[in-house]
């Protein structure tokens, strides 16, 4: 199996080649095939320590990284903002250097400030994996989204994907735009003009403020949550107005192609950006996304670690 | 005994007097004079300036010396030494110290320290409003009596238009310019960089040009209403330049400055979240940068000012969102700007010297920026062509937050003279 991977850190998808993205999928697929639905473990990262430094709330991403590290045989510890010395005024640099001194082998960072993992990767020698930074990037989410789409569609080349919602503050949207375009998909971003400014066209996407036109051609629609925590109160009138204009409900879902899939990175606000029944319908792949998050993150951890140590990747050895 | 200075053989550029010719420059007891007597010549200290430019000492009407209160970043001693090393002989320091300079007592403390420790002329400014809170007028009259040359709430633009109107009207009575940091705060909440393609890509909160344009327009309107002189600090936006140009054409009493970084760098420099490029106002687009350069070339923008804003390495060494705004500029402003404006062929040497000397001096009515006989012997001798690489660690400023660090530049200050005394000899402070 030929794998291409040229980095110890995964910060953003902008520098990643198509071959590197496909290598993630190759490894993830191998894990998925061998692990199946069993909770089997490998010993690929036996004895290694993975630190999840999560300075912003997270359920899915944090758990998926923890599970991924454990399935690779690594020890995994999670540090949250409230439980760390950052609340005592310690800088991010010092916190990270200390984790390195405590012999962490991989640092996974979730941080409210855009660019924090870029900064951190210059401060420490060990691999840094971005688990979401501000409004900047969430590369493993985009990789698992594309991986999920590839389970439904043979290729993403020419596929129409619409990302709907709060694009301005969304790291998921930015990473998905980069990832999907590298894989040949045509991306439309849609939502209210204040959250979907026309400048996004500079990222090579279609900017659309008309919901029907955004949905009609789509093979997949990714819904995004309204990020209350990042917005000032001025971007739209109310949640009610948002739902009435841009919420995906049964009537609007009928504008989609019959085989179009509905995606959401979570957490879902039921009845706001998506109708509750649609989220649970057979068009929804929302929970598949979550499950795929494990193997995709296993692949990323393994690739970054192997590049850093220079060890060859052997796939996959199971102790089931 | 009289102190006689004789600078020989340099290219004397004195834009205030339309002078640009090779010749000699003389001073007796710190005052420039047209010629020396033969006995004076015998006793003169001679500086050979052959191959160099002899210009008025540079003038920067926008620096932060952080003194009192934040002297781990800079103080009057280190800031004035950095100024001397950059060829500056007169600088105007901003009042956003800790405490802020909004009363004659704080001002006197600053003036005393300047007297004791500064190696160049340091002119203080006073706050426009008490505590820089934008609510009540500071005692401008008392501050002027105690020695300020301008009023400003630099860093915190007065948002309330009634307060601003009264502040400029009141300052006008004293003949003091009001220097304004043009920023509508409601448009820049949590913003850390220019709003545009790069802020979208980087996921950083964007700061639209409109935040500056609106206040520049307001200030033009208030200047027209009151006749007061309002000076627009560190312009960054193309539209602001247009507004200023139109106002000047109509004879409105407004002026403006641009900083070396806004005419050299763009927001693309932030693509790696380097906090060295984080400043307020933010670096903008190529189009804005070009408009600023055009504004400098056609006289719309009056002068270059550095907005020398020191921050310690620890303060800048953090996540982009939480790092402070600002960069230092004094020690490389002239060569950096020579690169942008002169070596690029956009302006002649004399025009660039004007932007660094009498134009700024006139805004704050300083006795500086000219080589007229009778003026202070404040002189900057520089080699416009010497090539060197910036090494911020060698700077005399306490802070090293300089985006040119490691960059090659062309043009170098060789000697700085204040009142006839050499304070910087090209290598070190000699005051």
Give a brief description.
The complex is a heterodimer of chains A (320) and B (431). Chain A is of the alpha/beta class and 320 residues long. Chain A is 38% helix and 15% strand.
Based on the coordinates given, report the CATH architecture of the largest domain in chain A. 3-Layer(aba) Sandwich
CATH topology of chain B: TIM Barrel
Looking at CATH, the homologous superfamily of the largest domain in chain A is: Aspartate/ornithine carbamoyltransferase
The 3D shape of chain A can be described as globular
Query: Separation of termini of chain B?
Result: 19 Å
Q: How large is the radius of gyration of chain B?
A: 21 Å
Domain count of chain A, please report it: 2
Number of strands of chain A: 11
Protein described:
- The complex is a heterodimer of chains A (320) and B (431).
- With 320 residues, chain A is an alpha/beta fold.
- Chain A has helices at residues 18-35, 60-71, 92-101, 116-123, 139-152, 171-182, 211-216, 239-246, 250-253, 276-280, 286-309; strands at residues 41-42, 49-54, 75-80, 106-111, 128-133, 160-164, 186-190, 206-208, 220-223, 261-263, 318-319.
- Chain A folds into 2 domains: 18-137 and 293-319, Rossmann fold; 139-289, Aspartate/ornithine carbamoyltransferase (Rossmann fold, 3-Layer(aba) Sandwich).
- In chain A, the strands form 3 sheets. Chain A has a 5-stranded parallel beta sheet. A 4-stranded parallel beta sheet of chain A has the order 3-2-4-5, sandwiched between helices.
- Chain A is globular.
- Chain B is of the alpha/beta class and 431 residues long.
- Helix content of chain B is 29%, strand content 22%.
- Chain B contains 13 helices and 18 strands.
- Chain B has helices at 38-43, 76-85, 104-117, 140-146, 161-173, 197-202, 210-226, 238-249, 286-297, 313-316, 333-342, 349-356, 358-363; strands spanning 4-14, 19-28, 31-33, 45-48, 53-56, 58-63, 88-93, 121-124, 151-152, 178-180, 193-194, 206-207, 230-232, 254-258, 303-304, 379-389, 408-418, 421-424.
- In chain B, strands 1, 2, 3, 4, 5, 16, 17 and 18 form an 8-stranded mixed beta sheet that branches. Chain B has a 5-stranded parallel beta sheet with strand order 9-10-13-14-15. In chain B, strands 6-7-8 form a 3-stranded parallel beta sheet.
- In chain B, helix 7 (210-226) runs parallel beside helix 8 and helix 8 packs parallel to helix 9.
- The mean pLDDT of chain B is 97.
- The A-B interface holds A 14, 91-93, 111-116, 118-119, 133-137, 168, 171, 174, 197, 199-200, 202-203, 232 and B 189-190, 196-197, 200-205, 272-273, 314, 317-322.
């Amino acid at each position: 199996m030929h794998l291409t991977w040229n980095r110890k850190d995964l910060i953003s998808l902008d520098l990643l080649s198509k071959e590197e993205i496909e290598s993630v999928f190759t490894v993830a697929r191998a894990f998925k095939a061998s692990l199946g639905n069993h909770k089997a473990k490998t010993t690929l990262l036996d004895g290694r320590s993975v630190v999840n430094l999560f300075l912003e709330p997270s359920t899915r991403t944090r758990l998926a990284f923890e599970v991924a590290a454990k399935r690779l045989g690594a020890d995994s510890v999670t540090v949250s903002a409230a439980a760390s010395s950052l609340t005592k005024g310690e800088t991010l640099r010092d916190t990270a250097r200390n984790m390195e001194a405590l012999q962490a082998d991989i640092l996974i960072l979730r941080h409210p400030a855009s660019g924090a993992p870029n900064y951190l990767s210059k401060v420490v020698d060990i691999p840094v994996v971005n688990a979401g930074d501000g409004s900047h990037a969430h590369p493993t989410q985009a990789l698992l989204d594309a991986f999920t789409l590839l389970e439904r569609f043979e290729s993403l080349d020419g596929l129409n994907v619409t990302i709907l919602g709060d694009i301005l503050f969304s790291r998921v949207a930015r990473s998905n735009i980069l990832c999907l375009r590298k894989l040949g998909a045509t991306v439309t971003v849609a939502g209210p003009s204040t959250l979907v400014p026309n400048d996004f066209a500079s990222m090579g996407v279609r900017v659309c403020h008309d919901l029907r036109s955004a949905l009609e051609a789509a093979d997949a629609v990714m819904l995004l949550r309204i990020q209350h925590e990042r917005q000032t109160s001025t971007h739209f009138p109310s949640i009610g107005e948002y739902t009435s204009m841009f919420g995906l409900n049964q009537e609007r879902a009928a504008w989609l192609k019959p085989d179009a899939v509905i995606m959401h990175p979570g957490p879902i606000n039921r009845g706001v950006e998506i109708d509750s029944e649609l989220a649970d319908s057979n068009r929804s792949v929302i929970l598949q996304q979550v499950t795929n998050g494990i193997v995709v993150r296993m692949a990323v951890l393994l690739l970054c670690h192997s590049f850093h140590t220079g060890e060859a990747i052997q796939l996959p050895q199971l102790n089931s | 005994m009289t102190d006689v200075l004789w600078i020989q053989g340099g290219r004397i550029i004195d834009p205030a007097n339309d002078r640009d010719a090779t010749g000699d420059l003389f001073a007796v007891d710190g005052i420039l004079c047209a010629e020396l007597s033969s006995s004076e010549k015998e006793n003169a200290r001679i500086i050979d300036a052959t191959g160099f430019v002899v210009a008025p000492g540079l003038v920067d009407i926008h620096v932060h010396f952080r003194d009192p209160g934040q002297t781990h970043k800079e103080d009057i001693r280190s800031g004035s030494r950095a100024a001397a090393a950059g060829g500056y002989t007169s600088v105007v320091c901003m009042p956003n110290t800790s405490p802020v300079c909004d009363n004659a007592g704080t001002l006197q403390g600053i003036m005393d320290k300047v007297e004791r420790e500064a190696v160049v002329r340091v002119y203080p400014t006073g706050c426009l409003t008490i505590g820089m809170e934008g609510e009540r007028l500071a005692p401008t009259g008392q501050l002027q009596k105690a020695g300020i040359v301008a009023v400003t709430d630099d860093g915190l633009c007065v948002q309330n238009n009634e307060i601003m109107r009264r502040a400029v009207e009141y300052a006008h009575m004293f003949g003091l310019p009001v220097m304004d940091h043009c920023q509508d705060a409601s448009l820049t909440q949590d913003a850390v960089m220019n709003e545009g393609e790069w802020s979208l890509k980087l996921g950083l909160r964007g700061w639209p040009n409109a935040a500056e344009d609106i206040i520049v327009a307001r200030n033009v309107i208030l200047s027209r209403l009151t006749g007061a002189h309002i000076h627009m600090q560190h312009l960054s936006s193309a539209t602001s330049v247009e507004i200023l140009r139109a106002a000047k054409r109509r004879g409105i009493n407004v002026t403006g400055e641009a900083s070396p970084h806004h005419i050299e760098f763009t927001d693309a420099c932030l693509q790696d979240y380097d906090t060295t490029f984080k400043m307020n106002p933010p670096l903008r687009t190529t189009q804005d940068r070009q408009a600023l350069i055009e504004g400098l070339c056609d006289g719309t923008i009056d002068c270059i000012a550095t907005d020398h804003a020191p921050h310690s390495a620890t303060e800048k060494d953090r996540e982009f969102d939480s790092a402070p705004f600002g960069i230092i500029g004094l020690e490389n402003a002239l060569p950096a700007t020579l690169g942008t404006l002169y070596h690029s062929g956009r302006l002649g040497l004399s025009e660039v010297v004007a932007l660094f000397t009498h134009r700024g001096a006139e805004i704050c009515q300083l006795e500086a920026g000219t080589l007229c006989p009778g003026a202070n012997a404040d002189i900057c001798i520089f080699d416009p062509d010497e090539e060197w690489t910036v090494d911020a660690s060698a700077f005399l400023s306490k802070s090293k937050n300089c985006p040119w660090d490691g960059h090659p530049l062309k043009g170098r200050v060789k000697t700085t003279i204040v009142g006839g005394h050499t304070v910087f000899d090209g290598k070190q402070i000699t005051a």
